[in-house]
Amino acid sequence: MAKARAGSDDGTSSKKRTATSGRATPPGGRATAGGRATPPKSRDVNKRYTAPIPKSVRHSPPWFGPVLLALLVVGLLLIVGNYVGIMPGGTSNWYLIGGLVGIVVGAMMATQYH
């Protein structure tokens, strides 16, 4: 038979274990070793004042909405008109490209509308 090693599961251990709670840090939240993994947050960052955006900057000019809608509608009409075949010169890919460009520019303008 093999001899039992120290610290094996047979209950004989050369070291005496102390009962611990299993926590890595004490209940206060701070490590007692003194080292931190991350630097402490600066208190000055939280006290900075950011002025609100003036209302004149937040509002779009009065022409912005009508131009946005006109681009979307003209783009749609170009694509539908080319599909139906009522465009001058017959059906052409250039009408489709123009319609798509109008819709894309109108959609990009819609994201900036206030």
Order of helix and strand elements from N to C terminus = HHHH
Oligomeric nature of the chains:
single chain
Rg, rounded, reads 36 Å
Q: pLDDT under 50 segments (min length 5)?
A: none
Mean pLDDT: 79
Q: How would you characterize the largest beta sheet? A: none
Q: Count up the helices.
A: 4
- What is the overall shape? elongated
Terminal CA distance? 85 Å
Proportion of strand residues = under 5%
Number of beta-strand segments: 0
Helical proportion? 40-55%
- Counting helices, strands and paired strands, the structural category is mainly alpha
What's the gist of this structure?
With 114 residues, this protein is mainly α. The protein has helices at 43-46, 55-58, 64-84, 93-111.
Describe the structure.
By secondary structure, the chain is mostly helical. The chain has a domain at 58-111. It has four helices and no strands. Helix 3 (64-84) packs antiparallel against helix 4 (93-111).
Secondary-structure topology with pairs:
Blueprint: H1 43-46, H2 55-58, H3 64-84, H4 93-111
Looking at this protein, list some descriptive labels.
single chain; 114 residues; mainly alpha; 4 helices; elongated
